[in-house]
Amino acid sequence: MTTATGDRQADAGALLSRALGAPGAAAIITDAPEPHPTLMKTFAAMMAREGRVLRRNMIGTFMRTVMQPLLFVFVFTYVLPKIGAAGILGAGAAAGTTFATVLLPGLMASMLFTQGIMAVTFPLVMEFSWQRTIEDRALAPVPIRVLAIQKIIAGAVQAFIGALIVIPIVLLVHAPGQAPQVNVTNWALLAFILAAGSLLTASLGLLLGTLMDPRKMQMLFAAILLPATMLGCVYYPWSALSSIRWLQIAVLVNPMVYMSEGLRAVLTPQTGHLAMWAILLVLVGGTALLGYLGTKAFTRRVLN
Amino acid sequence: MTQSAAQTGRQAPRNQAGDGPLERPAIRTEDLRKTYKTSRGDVQAVRGIDLAVGTGEFFGLLGPNGAGKSTTIGMLTTLVVPTGGRAWVAGIDVVADPVGVKRRIGVVTQNNTLDMQLTVAENLEFRSRFFGLGLREAARRAEQLLAAFGLEDRRKAIATDLSGGQAKRLLIARALVHKPDVLFLDEPTAGLDPQTRVNLWDMLRALHNEGQTILLTTHYMEEAEALCERVAVVDHGEVLASGTIDELKDGAGADTVITVRYEGAVPDGLALRPGLNTRPGISKVETEGDQVRVFTRQPDGVLGELVTAGASAGLTVRDAAQLKPSLETVFLNLTGREYRE
What we know:
The complex is a heterodimer of chains A (304) and B (341).
Chain A: H1 2-21, H2 39-56, H3 58-82, H4 99-128, H5 134-138, H6 144-172, H7 187-211, H8 218-230, H9 245-250, H10 255-267, H11 276-302
Helix pairs in contact in A: 2-6, 3-4, 3-6, 4-6, 4-7, 4-10, 6-7, 6-11, 7-10, 7-11, 10-11
Chain B: H1 2-8, E1 27-38, E2 41-53, E3 58-62, H2 69-76, E4 84-89, E5 92-93, H3 98-104, E6 105-108, H4 120-130, H5 135-148, H6 164-175, E7 182-186, H7 194-209, E8 213-218, H8 221-227, E9 230-235, E10 238-244, H9 245-250, E11 256-262, E12 282-288, E13 291-296, H10 302-312, E14 317-323, H11 327-335
Parallel strand pairs in B: 3-8, 3-9, 6-7, 7-8
Antiparallel strand pairs in B: 1-2, 1-4, 4-5, 9-10, 11-13, 11-14, 12-13
Helix pairs in contact in B: 4-5
């Protein structure tokens, strides 16, 4: 085995010498295509690379995206109603709304949040650690901030798709009579809230991935993903928290609240929701702020 | 320094920095500096380096680990921002136009920065597309490089499955996709087995023969001797000397260095007793602690005399070494320290 490898490597040296030295042979320097990079071409190629990797890891990506909402709705809108335990759920929602109605926007927001962060933070922490593979992309002919923006957009696309996958799952999986009551009147606003939410979480993902110590990765779940989800108005509308006033105020620091409530406002307005101006202010303002901070931190970390 | 680069430079386009009709070097730095701010105060990694590398030249930055080579290459490749001085690559200011520089350079970093999610061929294809090649063009370029670097049968392997030597070949191939004006290699053979290293040397020579301008950093003296036309010896963030290997050796470094270590401290004047200072060919005699070091062009008999001199002073010799003129003796001569890899 060792000898075989050695021989092959020896061959490789000879191969190149022959290729470069022999007249008429493919000379890799003189016979090279003239590159004409533009910002758009490079950006598009980077997005194509993400697409290729996603396609290659399709099963893993699919599992990651589908399993959480699928199991969730299966247990909460099928199993629990069947065994007669559904009464306690959805108690805070307006009378006559099913728990699935509360869950649909909530799970979509939860998916936006987790997918956005997972898609950006995890690879980035890897790229910054050990072999610092980020240097490879940093040498592409674009400014470093374009690289940061590309990472945000690629992550946002994945978050957006993740949230869409939730819809058929919640619509289809439930016990008889437990279907969510969806009532969309403003499709443009729905798309806008989904897009803004995706960009916000991907920007947060960039900031976290840049600042996070790889040895403390498990903290991501304990300190960010879990509290954000449990206290993100995923399983109850914000208005239902009025009976615990301090908590109702405290959760307003959680960006996921504005995604859940924003989607609630456009998908299931009958459950009641936060004021739209507050939702839009936080989603747009938060994206701008986190995008700025993330890009700045990223650039500073890549260039030392 | 600048003058010798001007002599080596083969192209003569207009100097864009506005320095008159000087030939444009592939790489030029002026008093380039990098100081890192740390919690323990400022660390001066690079303290004012002046370099000029001509187009088509194979240039080496030689120095021990921690000498500032990687920081220098980092500044030239735009990934490290200088804190002082200026640098131009292919005539472009690295601080003012980093994107312009990145378009014209290929970089092989010390670490394995292959895209571990992609196959060998995809690593080349996507890098080609990052540099603006179309799909078909990128695929053709990838095939061409796979063939030249003997990686065709690994085409579909994921980059994580490559051996160290294969990964290094792919890194070099990938750095060449866009026909860079300058190829930067940071410690290209560190950690490779001797056979793989020699093969890599052959490849680099072949590239250079094809006209590729190469700047390489290394802490292996024999690597610099084997490959580079000109070398800058770097230590503690400064260039100690630069020139062709022969020029460096012909300087004070052409001496053979004889070091004798005794069992005890060397008394003052011991080394001078046998009349070493009057012997022809001797350029320097250094006494330090328990050792005497003689720099000479005529080494015959010197060792014996040092042993005799020691014996007359009641000192036995613990060990002795004679170094033929090499970059190692050059380094010793410049720094008074033994070369530490």
